[in-house]
Specification:
By secondary structure, this protein is an alpha/beta fold. The chain has helices at 43-52, 60-84, 116-123, 133-137, 147-154, 190-198, 211-214, 220-227, 247-254, 261-282, 298-307, 326-339, 347-350, and strands at residues 2-8, 14-25, 28-40, 90-103, 106-113, 127-129, 161-166, 169-176, 179-187, 287-291, 312-315, 360-362, 379-384.
Length: 386
């Protein structure tokens, strides 16, 4: 079964897409990545999305319009990707998270927009969507869902191993003695990106090649203040997002300080290094596979390797999932699992009380015909075509 996976992450800069051709035998799943790409949002659409995100106030009219416009953007990307491989059997879309509702140590709800009916109409295949909420109804945080993929890729390593994703938010899956723990650590790129955009430091919207951070120095007093954030002391499982770590969060911390742009970016970058390194060391991790946009930031990656001398810090490509497409591969995998009746939750990864089949299915151009159910996925091997 060919499944197309789509998402836009917490950096909300564009749409990642993959097509994976899955084949299963006795629970062993093999996937060949046939197509992978990342398509930026149109600048005006991204600007509208950013303007509507918390802590900004918005209207239901704006949410409705963004739901349609983002759905149409996803549909265009999906149709092009599907055509490039001669068609797909199913699609799984994460959409764009606009709010993740957490009270204390419990997730209460989550909202992803990007109307899936537009994708179904454009591609003609059934579309799995709204994949996080079922985990929340089962007592989980709805995140990090990537723990399901991580556990399969890290299984059987015989050491304490972890997968780290450095998107807008940093999340980590730890596998030790067959037990899985996963959670959101805190901000990865979210705060730096917010400052770069707000202060017009470049036309990229992020600190390309850490050029800004490398020109600055760490403000230790500000860093200590940032590290005192109560979220870091919460026990896993836990989740967070840009509802908490956003531009106004930075402004509140620097309101009474004089600090240059470069020093601020360097300090916020170091915040990611310190919070991640602290949790990696505390868990006794010996192998760490890193993915996400943050792994292209040499200050972060070199900082982690320096702070964790006893840890083998590698890129996720070594596990068969490319650093920039890993989460899109996750959603292709979730789509395959949902279509085959397989639960795609690791309870230790999200805090859910039990596994659940995820998502809602929008039919394609014809009757919805489900494949024969599969009891479980016991292993996963990923390769890339060509």
């Amino acid at each position: 079964m060919r499944v197309l996976g789509l998402l836009s992450g917490t950096s909300h800069d564009g749409i990642d897409v993959v097509v994976v051709d899955f084949a299963e035998h006795d629970g062993a799943l093999r996937g060949i990545v046939l197509h992978e790409d990342s398509v930026p949002y149109a600048p005006d659409l991204r600007a509208r999305l950013v303007a509507a995100l918390p802590p900004a106030q918005t209207t239901l009219a704006e949410v409705c319009e963004l739901d349609t416009l983002i759905g149409q953007a996803f549909a265009d990307v999906a149709a092009s990707a599907a055509a490039s491989v001669g068609g797909v059997d199913a699609v799984c879309t994460h959409g764009q998270t606009v709010y993740h509702w957490v009270e204390g140590d419990h997730a209460r709800g989550t909202l992803q927009i990007g109307q899936p009916a537009w994708i179904a109409e454009a591609v003609g295949a059934p579309v799995v969507s709204d994949v996080r909420i079922r985990d929340i109804t089962a007592g989980g945080h709805g995140a990090p869902l990537v723990s399901f993929l991580d556990e399969l890729l890290l299984r059987g390593r015989g050491e304490v191993a972890a997968a780290l994703n450095l998107g807008g938010i940093a999340n980590m899956t730890v596998v030790a003695d067959g037990r899985v723990s996963a959670y959101d650590i805190g901000p990865a790129n979210a705060l730096v990106d917010a400052v770069v955009v707000d202060r017009g430091l470049n036309d990229k919207g992020y600190d390309e090649d850490a050029a800004i951070a490398r020109a600055g120095t760490i403000d230790e007093a500000l860093l200590a203040d940032l590290l005192a954030e109560p979220y870091y002391a919460l026990s896993a499982p836990k989740s967070t997002g840009k509802e908490h770590f956003h531009l106004d969060y930075v402004r509140a911390h620097v309101a009474e300080r004089e600090i240059s742009d470069a020093d601020l970016v360097r300090t916020l970058t170091e915040l990611t290094v310190r919070t991640v390194a602290q949790d990696v060391a505390a868990a006794g991790i010996r192998f760490l596979a890193v993915s996400g946009g943050g792994c292209h930031n040499p200050v972060i990656l070199d900082g982690l390797r320096s702070a964790l001398p006893g840890v083998d810090v590698v890129l996720a490509d070594e596990l068969g999932a490319s650093v920039d497409s890993k989460e899109a591969i996750l959603f292709a995998l979730i789509g395959w699992c949902t279509m085959h009746g397989v639960a795609a939750i690791v309870p230790g990864g999200t805090g859910a009380m039990a596994p659940r089949i995820l998502g809602t299915i929008t039919p394609g151009e014809g009757p919805l015909r489900m494949p024969e159910p599969v009891d479980a996925v016991t292993s996963l091997t990923l390769t890339t075509a060509g």
